[in-house]
Design brief:
- The protein is 39% helix and 29% strand.
- With 59 residues, the chain is of the alpha+beta class.
Amino acid sequence: MTATTQLHAAVDDQKVLAAIAEALKSIQFGAVEITLHNGQVVQIERKEKIRFQPPTRTS
């Protein structure tokens, strides 16, 4: 691997890590799914759930 190729791989890794971090920090309930193909991240999918609490009853 040449130095230029290594630099591009490092930049791509940083972009992938930043995208994963963004998906994780902006979700409260749900899942973050990372899809790989030949050892490379090809897709990051975020499934978010929004939960509502039922109203509390007062006696």
